[in-house]
Amino acid sequence: MTTNINAAVPDNHFFGDVCKFFDHAATFTKHDAGLLDQIKSCNSVYRFRFPIRKGNGFEVIDAWRVEHSHHQSPTKGGIRYSEMVNEDEVMALAALMTYKCAIVNVPFGGAKGGIRINPKNYTVGELENITRRYTVELIKKNFIGPSIDVPAPDYGSGEREMSWIADTYATMNPGQLDAMGAVTGKPIALQGIAGRREATGRGVAIAIRECVSVGEDMLKLGLTAGISGKKVIVQGLGNVGYHSAKFLTEFGALIVGLCEFEGAIYNADGLDIEAVFQHRKATGSILGYPGAIEFKNSMEGLEQPCDILVPAALENQITIENITRIQAKIIAEGANGPTTPEAEAVFYQNGGLIIPDMYANAGGVTVSYFEWLKNLSHVAFGRMNRRFEENSNLNLVNMVEGITGVALNSAQRSSIIKGASELELVNSGLEDTMIRSYHEIRETFINTQGIDTLRTAAFVGAINKIAVSYQNLGVWP
Ligand code: GLU
After folding, report:
1. Does residue 409 fall inside a structural domain?
2. pLDDT tens digits for 209-244?
3. Rg value, the chain, Cα
4. To test ligand 1's pocket by mutation, which of 368, 371, 374, 426 has the most ligand atoms within 8 angstroms of CB?
5. Are 151 and 163 in contact (CB under 8 A)?
6. Residue finishing a domain among 190, 220, 251
Protein backbone atom coordinates (compact mmCIF):
# COMPACT_ATOMS: atom_id res chain seq x y z
CA MET A 1 0.00 0.00 0.00
CA THR A 2 1.28 3.50 -0.78
CA THR A 3 -0.02 6.88 0.31
CA ASN A 4 -0.01 10.26 -1.31
CA ILE A 5 3.17 12.16 -0.48
CA ASN A 6 1.65 15.48 -1.59
CA ALA A 7 0.67 16.20 1.91
CA ALA A 8 0.62 19.97 1.78
CA VAL A 9 -3.12 19.77 1.06
CA PRO A 10 -4.69 23.22 0.63
CA ASP A 11 -7.06 23.03 3.61
CA ASN A 12 -4.21 22.30 6.02
CA HIS A 13 -3.81 25.49 8.00
CA PHE A 14 -1.86 24.58 11.13
CA PHE A 15 1.44 26.17 10.08
CA GLY A 16 -0.57 29.13 8.76
CA ASP A 17 -2.27 29.45 12.16
CA VAL A 18 1.10 29.47 13.95
CA CYS A 19 2.31 32.15 11.50
CA LYS A 20 -0.88 34.18 12.13
CA PHE A 21 -0.20 34.15 15.86
CA PHE A 22 3.44 35.06 15.13
CA ASP A 23 2.59 37.95 12.78
CA HIS A 24 0.16 39.39 15.29
CA ALA A 25 2.72 39.18 18.11
CA ALA A 26 5.41 40.66 15.87
CA THR A 27 3.45 43.92 15.77
CA PHE A 28 4.34 44.30 19.47
CA THR A 29 8.08 44.07 18.70
CA LYS A 30 10.43 46.44 16.91
CA HIS A 31 12.42 44.03 14.77
CA ASP A 32 13.35 44.40 11.15
CA ALA A 33 10.84 42.69 8.79
CA GLY A 34 13.60 40.52 7.31
CA LEU A 35 14.67 39.25 10.71
CA LEU A 36 11.06 38.45 11.61
CA ASP A 37 10.72 36.54 8.36
CA GLN A 38 13.90 34.58 9.12
CA ILE A 39 12.59 33.67 12.60
CA LYS A 40 9.19 32.61 11.28
CA SER A 41 10.30 30.44 8.34
CA CYS A 42 11.10 26.74 8.49
CA ASN A 43 14.84 26.51 7.71
CA SER A 44 14.99 22.88 6.53
CA VAL A 45 12.18 20.54 5.51
CA TYR A 46 13.29 16.99 4.80
CA ARG A 47 10.58 14.83 3.26
CA PHE A 48 11.44 11.24 2.46
CA ARG A 49 10.04 7.81 1.73
CA PHE A 50 11.45 4.38 2.45
CA PRO A 51 10.24 0.81 1.99
CA ILE A 52 9.70 -1.77 4.71
CA ARG A 53 8.77 -5.41 4.43
CA LYS A 54 5.15 -6.06 5.38
CA GLY A 55 3.55 -9.50 5.09
CA ASN A 56 4.66 -10.99 1.77
CA GLY A 57 5.35 -7.64 0.18
CA PHE A 58 6.61 -4.15 0.79
CA GLU A 59 5.09 -0.93 1.99
CA VAL A 60 6.41 2.54 1.33
CA ILE A 61 6.43 4.80 4.38
CA ASP A 62 6.14 8.61 4.19
CA ALA A 63 8.21 10.53 6.71
CA TRP A 64 9.46 14.01 7.60
CA ARG A 65 11.93 15.87 9.74
CA VAL A 66 11.66 19.63 9.88
CA GLU A 67 14.28 21.87 11.49
CA HIS A 68 12.50 25.14 11.96
CA SER A 69 15.23 27.34 13.41
CA HIS A 70 19.00 27.08 13.78
CA HIS A 71 19.46 30.15 15.96
CA GLN A 72 20.55 27.63 18.62
CA SER A 73 22.08 24.17 18.20
CA PRO A 74 21.03 21.44 18.39
CA THR A 75 17.47 21.63 17.16
CA LYS A 76 14.99 19.67 19.25
CA GLY A 77 11.58 18.10 19.01
CA GLY A 78 9.60 14.88 19.06
CA ILE A 79 8.67 12.40 16.34
CA ARG A 80 4.98 11.88 15.75
CA TYR A 81 3.73 8.45 14.63
CA SER A 82 0.28 8.99 13.16
CA GLU A 83 -1.57 8.30 9.94
CA MET A 84 -2.74 11.92 10.00
CA VAL A 85 0.81 13.35 9.87
CA ASN A 86 1.47 15.70 6.97
CA GLU A 87 4.04 18.29 6.03
CA ASP A 88 2.01 21.27 7.20
CA GLU A 89 1.56 19.71 10.63
CA VAL A 90 5.24 18.83 11.08
CA MET A 91 6.23 22.36 10.04
CA ALA A 92 3.77 23.89 12.50
CA LEU A 93 4.93 21.64 15.34
CA ALA A 94 8.60 22.37 14.56
CA ALA A 95 7.89 26.10 14.69
CA LEU A 96 6.09 25.74 18.02
CA MET A 97 9.17 23.92 19.36
CA THR A 98 11.35 26.94 18.51
CA TYR A 99 9.08 29.32 20.45
CA LYS A 100 8.56 26.79 23.26
CA CYS A 101 12.30 26.38 23.86
CA ALA A 102 12.80 30.16 23.85
CA ILE A 103 9.98 30.69 26.36
CA VAL A 104 11.42 28.26 28.91
CA ASN A 105 15.05 29.27 28.21
CA VAL A 106 16.06 25.89 26.82
CA PRO A 107 18.97 26.59 24.44
CA PHE A 108 17.70 24.66 21.40
CA GLY A 109 16.23 25.49 18.02
CA GLY A 110 12.89 23.88 17.17
CA ALA A 111 12.36 20.72 15.12
CA LYS A 112 9.79 17.99 14.66
CA GLY A 113 9.52 14.64 12.92
CA GLY A 114 6.65 12.66 11.53
CA ILE A 115 6.11 9.10 10.33
CA ARG A 116 2.81 8.57 8.59
CA ILE A 117 1.60 5.29 10.06
CA ASN A 118 -0.98 4.12 12.55
CA PRO A 119 1.28 2.23 14.99
CA LYS A 120 -1.64 -0.06 15.91
CA ASN A 121 -1.51 -1.60 12.41
CA TYR A 122 2.09 -2.79 12.79
CA THR A 123 3.81 -5.53 14.75
CA VAL A 124 6.54 -4.56 17.21
CA GLY A 125 9.10 -5.95 14.75
CA GLU A 126 7.72 -3.79 11.95
CA LEU A 127 7.71 -0.70 14.17
CA GLU A 128 11.33 -1.39 15.03
CA ASN A 129 12.22 -1.70 11.33
CA ILE A 130 10.43 1.55 10.53
CA THR A 131 12.08 3.42 13.41
CA ARG A 132 15.57 2.15 12.65
CA ARG A 133 15.21 2.90 8.95
CA TYR A 134 13.85 6.38 9.72
CA THR A 135 16.91 6.98 11.89
CA VAL A 136 19.29 5.78 9.17
CA GLU A 137 17.64 8.18 6.70
CA LEU A 138 18.21 11.04 9.17
CA ILE A 139 21.85 10.01 9.67
CA LYS A 140 22.42 9.90 5.89
CA LYS A 141 21.33 13.53 5.57
CA ASN A 142 22.94 14.79 8.79
CA PHE A 143 19.53 15.43 10.38
CA ILE A 144 20.34 13.83 13.74
CA GLY A 145 23.14 14.07 16.32
CA PRO A 146 23.77 15.41 19.83
CA SER A 147 24.90 18.75 18.43
CA ILE A 148 22.72 18.74 15.29
CA ASP A 149 19.13 17.67 15.89
CA VAL A 150 17.85 15.65 18.84
CA PRO A 151 14.50 13.82 18.51
CA ALA A 152 12.22 12.84 21.39
CA PRO A 153 8.84 11.17 21.89
CA ASP A 154 5.62 12.76 20.65
CA TYR A 155 2.10 11.52 19.87
CA GLY A 156 2.33 7.79 19.07
CA SER A 157 5.94 7.26 20.19
CA GLY A 158 7.63 6.65 23.53
CA GLU A 159 10.65 5.24 25.33
CA ARG A 160 10.74 2.06 23.23
CA GLU A 161 11.05 3.97 19.96
CA MET A 162 13.67 6.31 21.47
CA SER A 163 15.79 3.33 22.51
CA TRP A 164 15.71 1.99 18.92
CA ILE A 165 16.80 5.41 17.68
CA ALA A 166 19.59 5.64 20.27
CA ASP A 167 20.85 2.17 19.42
CA THR A 168 20.76 2.80 15.65
CA TYR A 169 22.53 6.13 16.03
CA ALA A 170 25.21 4.66 18.33
CA THR A 171 25.73 1.69 16.00
CA MET A 172 26.21 3.96 12.99
CA ASN A 173 28.57 6.28 14.93
CA PRO A 174 30.97 3.90 16.66
CA GLY A 175 33.12 5.53 19.29
CA GLN A 176 31.14 8.76 19.42
CA LEU A 177 31.34 9.58 23.12
CA ASP A 178 28.13 11.62 23.21
CA ALA A 179 26.05 9.31 21.01
CA MET A 180 23.33 8.88 23.67
CA GLY A 181 22.72 12.63 23.53
CA ALA A 182 21.35 12.17 19.99
CA VAL A 183 17.86 11.43 21.32
CA THR A 184 15.96 12.06 24.57
CA GLY A 185 13.01 10.40 26.25
CA LYS A 186 15.03 7.18 26.45
CA PRO A 187 14.37 4.51 29.09
CA ILE A 188 16.29 5.14 32.32
CA ALA A 189 18.31 1.97 31.71
CA LEU A 190 19.53 3.46 28.42
CA GLN A 191 20.75 6.75 29.89
CA GLY A 192 17.32 8.36 30.08
CA ILE A 193 16.47 10.56 33.04
CA ALA A 194 14.15 10.14 36.01
CA GLY A 195 10.92 12.13 35.61
CA ARG A 196 10.99 12.54 31.80
CA ARG A 197 7.94 10.34 31.18
CA GLU A 198 5.64 12.40 33.39
CA ALA A 199 7.38 15.77 32.73
CA THR A 200 4.93 17.25 30.21
CA GLY A 201 1.87 16.46 32.35
CA ARG A 202 3.61 17.63 35.52
CA GLY A 203 4.52 20.86 33.72
CA VAL A 204 0.91 21.38 32.57
CA ALA A 205 -0.32 20.93 36.15
CA ILE A 206 2.29 23.37 37.53
CA ALA A 207 1.39 25.91 34.82
CA ILE A 208 -2.29 25.75 35.81
CA ARG A 209 -1.51 25.92 39.54
CA GLU A 210 0.65 28.98 38.99
CA CYS A 211 -1.92 30.71 36.81
CA VAL A 212 -4.79 30.21 39.27
CA SER A 213 -2.62 31.29 42.20
CA VAL A 214 -2.73 34.94 41.01
CA GLY A 215 -5.75 36.32 42.85
CA GLU A 216 -6.26 39.50 40.79
CA ASP A 217 -6.30 37.52 37.51
CA MET A 218 -8.78 35.01 38.92
CA LEU A 219 -11.02 37.82 40.15
CA LYS A 220 -11.37 39.05 36.55
CA LEU A 221 -12.44 35.55 35.50
CA GLY A 222 -14.91 35.26 38.38
CA LEU A 223 -12.85 32.51 40.01
CA THR A 224 -11.32 32.24 43.46
CA ALA A 225 -7.53 32.05 43.81
CA GLY A 226 -5.88 28.67 44.28
CA ILE A 227 -6.02 25.24 42.69
CA SER A 228 -7.91 23.59 45.53
CA GLY A 229 -11.36 22.42 44.38
CA LYS A 230 -11.05 23.79 40.82
CA LYS A 231 -13.13 21.67 38.45
CA VAL A 232 -11.18 20.38 35.47
CA ILE A 233 -12.07 18.53 32.25
CA VAL A 234 -9.20 16.76 30.49
CA GLN A 235 -9.29 15.70 26.86
CA GLY A 236 -6.95 12.77 26.17
CA LEU A 237 -5.84 10.04 28.51
CA GLY A 238 -2.46 9.53 26.85
CA ASN A 239 0.83 10.38 28.53
CA VAL A 240 0.18 14.14 28.75
CA GLY A 241 -3.52 13.99 29.66
CA TYR A 242 -3.11 11.22 32.20
CA HIS A 243 -0.21 12.88 34.00
CA SER A 244 -1.81 16.35 33.90
CA ALA A 245 -4.92 14.89 35.55
CA LYS A 246 -2.85 12.92 38.07
CA PHE A 247 -0.78 15.91 39.23
CA LEU A 248 -3.76 18.30 39.20
CA THR A 249 -5.51 15.86 41.52
CA GLU A 250 -2.42 15.78 43.76
CA PHE A 251 -2.46 19.60 43.85
CA GLY A 252 -6.10 19.55 45.03
CA ALA A 253 -8.11 20.06 41.83
CA LEU A 254 -11.18 17.96 41.00
CA ILE A 255 -11.16 16.12 37.66
CA VAL A 256 -14.84 16.21 36.65
CA GLY A 257 -14.61 15.15 33.01
CA LEU A 258 -12.46 12.98 30.74
CA CYS A 259 -12.72 12.74 26.95
CA GLU A 260 -11.22 10.09 24.66
CA PHE A 261 -11.81 8.75 21.12
CA GLU A 262 -14.65 6.48 22.21
CA GLY A 263 -16.60 9.14 24.12
CA ALA A 264 -16.53 11.24 27.26
CA ILE A 265 -17.50 10.82 30.92
CA TYR A 266 -18.49 13.45 33.46
CA ASN A 267 -19.15 13.51 37.18
CA ALA A 268 -19.52 16.88 38.94
CA ASP A 269 -18.35 15.27 42.21
CA GLY A 270 -15.06 14.21 40.66
CA LEU A 271 -13.57 11.19 38.89
CA ASP A 272 -10.81 8.97 40.24
CA ILE A 273 -8.29 9.28 37.43
CA GLU A 274 -6.39 6.12 38.39
CA ALA A 275 -9.63 4.08 38.55
CA VAL A 276 -10.77 5.42 35.15
CA PHE A 277 -7.35 4.59 33.70
CA GLN A 278 -7.58 1.01 35.02
CA HIS A 279 -11.19 0.73 33.81
CA ARG A 280 -10.10 1.75 30.29
CA LYS A 281 -7.20 -0.69 30.40
CA ALA A 282 -9.52 -3.52 31.39
CA THR A 283 -12.49 -2.74 29.10
CA GLY A 284 -10.86 -0.79 26.27
CA SER A 285 -13.08 2.25 26.91
CA ILE A 286 -13.68 5.01 29.42
CA LEU A 287 -17.41 4.51 28.82
CA GLY A 288 -19.14 2.29 31.35
CA TYR A 289 -17.19 3.81 34.24
CA PRO A 290 -19.49 3.58 37.27
CA GLY A 291 -21.34 6.70 38.43
CA ALA A 292 -20.47 8.98 35.48
CA ILE A 293 -22.68 10.64 32.86
CA GLU A 294 -21.65 9.46 29.38
CA PHE A 295 -21.37 11.15 25.99
CA LYS A 296 -20.95 8.99 22.89
CA ASN A 297 -19.79 12.08 21.05
CA SER A 298 -16.49 12.80 22.74
CA MET A 299 -16.54 16.50 21.77
CA GLU A 300 -19.65 17.02 23.93
CA GLY A 301 -17.48 16.21 26.92
CA LEU A 302 -15.52 19.44 26.38
CA GLU A 303 -18.68 21.50 26.73
CA GLN A 304 -19.67 20.42 30.23
CA PRO A 305 -19.49 22.72 33.29
CA CYS A 306 -15.98 23.21 34.70
CA ASP A 307 -13.46 25.94 35.59
CA ILE A 308 -10.56 24.67 33.51
CA LEU A 309 -10.42 22.71 30.26
CA VAL A 310 -7.20 20.87 29.40
CA PRO A 311 -7.12 19.76 25.76
CA ALA A 312 -4.26 17.22 25.84
CA ALA A 313 -4.87 15.26 22.65
CA LEU A 314 -4.36 16.82 19.21
CA GLU A 315 -4.52 20.12 17.38
CA ASN A 316 -7.66 21.82 16.08
CA GLN A 317 -10.07 20.69 18.80
CA ILE A 318 -11.43 24.07 19.87
CA THR A 319 -12.66 25.98 16.87
CA ILE A 320 -15.09 28.72 15.97
CA GLU A 321 -17.72 25.95 15.77
CA ASN A 322 -17.63 24.84 19.43
CA ILE A 323 -15.94 27.72 21.31
CA THR A 324 -19.15 29.40 22.45
CA ARG A 325 -20.33 26.15 24.06
CA ILE A 326 -17.15 25.76 26.14
CA GLN A 327 -18.08 26.59 29.75
CA ALA A 328 -14.56 26.66 31.19
CA LYS A 329 -13.02 30.01 32.16
CA ILE A 330 -9.49 28.81 31.51
CA ILE A 331 -8.18 26.63 28.68
CA ALA A 332 -4.77 25.13 29.43
CA GLU A 333 -3.28 23.69 26.26
CA GLY A 334 -1.59 20.38 27.04
CA ALA A 335 -1.60 19.51 23.32
CA ASN A 336 0.09 21.55 20.61
CA GLY A 337 -2.29 23.80 18.67
CA PRO A 338 -5.66 22.67 20.10
CA THR A 339 -7.24 26.15 19.74
CA THR A 340 -7.59 28.00 16.41
CA PRO A 341 -6.81 31.75 16.34
CA GLU A 342 -10.47 32.59 15.61
CA ALA A 343 -11.70 30.51 18.57
CA GLU A 344 -9.13 32.09 20.86
CA ALA A 345 -10.32 35.60 19.95
CA VAL A 346 -13.92 34.68 20.80
CA PHE A 347 -12.91 33.01 24.06
CA TYR A 348 -11.06 36.13 25.24
CA GLN A 349 -13.94 38.40 24.12
CA ASN A 350 -16.20 36.29 26.33
CA GLY A 351 -13.90 36.83 29.30
CA GLY A 352 -11.82 33.64 29.18
CA LEU A 353 -8.08 33.03 29.49
CA ILE A 354 -5.86 30.58 27.57
CA ILE A 355 -2.59 29.21 28.92
CA PRO A 356 -0.88 28.68 25.56
CA ASP A 357 0.58 25.37 24.39
CA MET A 358 4.11 26.60 23.82
CA TYR A 359 4.36 27.43 27.49
CA ALA A 360 1.88 24.99 29.06
CA ASN A 361 3.37 21.82 27.57
CA ALA A 362 7.02 22.89 27.67
CA GLY A 363 7.80 20.59 30.61
CA GLY A 364 8.65 17.73 28.25
CA VAL A 365 11.38 19.55 26.37
CA THR A 366 12.64 21.11 29.60
CA VAL A 367 13.34 17.69 31.08
CA SER A 368 14.66 16.52 27.69
CA TYR A 369 17.20 19.31 28.07
CA PHE A 370 18.19 17.91 31.48
CA GLU A 371 18.51 14.44 29.92
CA TRP A 372 20.73 15.81 27.14
CA LEU A 373 22.92 17.57 29.74
CA LYS A 374 23.17 14.30 31.67
CA ASN A 375 24.20 12.45 28.50
CA LEU A 376 26.86 15.01 27.61
CA SER A 377 28.24 15.15 31.16
CA HIS A 378 28.10 11.34 31.52
CA VAL A 379 27.06 11.59 35.14
CA ALA A 380 23.66 11.36 36.82
CA PHE A 381 22.41 14.48 38.59
CA GLY A 382 23.15 14.31 42.30
CA ARG A 383 25.86 11.66 42.04
CA MET A 384 28.76 13.90 43.04
CA ASN A 385 27.11 15.85 45.84
CA ARG A 386 24.39 13.73 47.45
CA ARG A 387 26.54 12.09 50.13
CA PHE A 388 28.38 15.37 50.75
CA GLU A 389 25.07 17.21 51.29
CA GLU A 390 23.82 14.47 53.60
CA ASN A 391 26.98 14.65 55.72
CA SER A 392 26.78 18.45 55.95
CA ASN A 393 23.11 18.27 56.90
CA LEU A 394 23.87 15.60 59.50
CA ASN A 395 26.59 17.75 61.08
CA LEU A 396 24.19 20.69 61.20
CA VAL A 397 21.36 18.67 62.77
CA ASN A 398 23.75 17.19 65.38
CA MET A 399 25.06 20.66 66.20
CA VAL A 400 21.57 22.21 66.53
CA GLU A 401 20.39 19.28 68.67
CA GLY A 402 23.48 19.67 70.87
CA ILE A 403 22.95 23.43 71.32
CA THR A 404 19.17 23.38 71.83
CA GLY A 405 18.85 20.05 73.63
CA VAL A 406 15.86 19.25 71.36
CA ALA A 407 16.05 15.77 69.84
CA LEU A 408 14.36 15.26 66.45
CA ASN A 409 12.57 11.97 65.80
CA SER A 410 14.02 9.71 63.13
CA ALA A 411 11.49 10.76 60.42
CA GLN A 412 12.32 14.44 61.02
CA ARG A 413 16.04 13.69 60.99
CA SER A 414 15.99 11.78 57.75
CA SER A 415 13.78 14.34 55.97
CA ILE A 416 16.26 17.11 56.84
CA ILE A 417 19.41 15.11 56.23
CA LYS A 418 18.46 13.44 52.95
CA GLY A 419 20.41 14.63 49.88
CA ALA A 420 18.50 15.22 46.62
CA SER A 421 17.93 12.33 44.20
CA GLU A 422 18.01 12.75 40.42
CA LEU A 423 14.19 12.76 40.34
CA GLU A 424 13.99 15.47 43.00
CA LEU A 425 16.52 17.64 41.16
CA VAL A 426 14.71 17.16 37.84
CA ASN A 427 11.36 18.04 39.38
CA SER A 428 12.85 21.05 41.12
CA GLY A 429 14.37 22.31 37.84
CA LEU A 430 11.07 21.71 36.06
CA GLU A 431 8.99 23.50 38.69
CA ASP A 432 11.36 26.47 38.77
CA THR A 433 11.28 26.71 34.96
CA MET A 434 7.48 26.58 34.75
CA ILE A 435 6.93 29.12 37.52
CA ARG A 436 9.51 31.63 36.27
CA SER A 437 8.34 31.35 32.68
CA TYR A 438 4.70 31.90 33.65
CA HIS A 439 5.52 35.16 35.39
CA GLU A 440 7.76 36.28 32.53
CA ILE A 441 4.83 35.84 30.12
CA ARG A 442 2.37 37.44 32.53
CA GLU A 443 4.63 40.46 33.02
CA THR A 444 4.78 41.00 29.24
CA PHE A 445 0.99 40.59 29.10
CA ILE A 446 0.42 43.17 31.81
CA ASN A 447 3.07 45.65 30.71
CA THR A 448 2.53 45.73 26.95
CA GLN A 449 0.05 48.33 25.81
CA GLY A 450 -2.78 46.86 23.72
CA ILE A 451 -1.68 43.21 24.01
CA ASP A 452 -4.61 40.81 23.87
CA THR A 453 -3.66 37.31 25.00
CA LEU A 454 -1.12 35.36 27.04
CA ARG A 455 -0.19 33.60 23.78
CA THR A 456 0.71 36.90 22.13
CA ALA A 457 2.77 37.77 25.21
CA ALA A 458 4.52 34.37 25.04
CA PHE A 459 5.28 34.91 21.35
CA VAL A 460 6.62 38.43 22.00
CA GLY A 461 9.02 37.09 24.63
CA ALA A 462 10.12 34.24 22.35
CA ILE A 463 10.61 36.50 19.31
CA ASN A 464 12.73 38.93 21.33
CA LYS A 465 14.95 36.16 22.68
CA ILE A 466 15.43 34.55 19.25
CA ALA A 467 16.19 37.95 17.71
CA VAL A 468 18.95 38.45 20.30
CA SER A 469 20.41 35.02 19.42
CA TYR A 470 20.55 35.95 15.73
CA GLN A 471 22.17 39.25 16.62
CA ASN A 472 24.71 37.46 18.85
CA LEU A 473 25.47 35.03 16.06
CA GLY A 474 26.37 38.04 13.97
CA VAL A 475 23.98 37.06 11.18
CA TRP A 476 21.82 40.12 11.81
CA PRO A 477 22.99 43.64 12.58
N1 GLU B 1 7.29 16.16 21.75
C2 GLU B 1 7.40 16.97 22.91
C3 GLU B 1 6.94 18.38 22.63
O4 GLU B 1 6.16 18.62 21.75
C5 GLU B 1 8.80 16.88 23.53
C6 GLU B 1 9.91 17.39 22.69
C7 GLU B 1 11.29 17.11 23.28
O8 GLU B 1 11.39 16.63 24.39
O9 GLU B 1 12.26 17.36 22.56
O10 GLU B 1 7.26 19.29 23.34
Report:
1. no
2. 999 999 999 999 999 999 999 999 999 999 999 999
3. 23
4. 368
5. no
6. 190
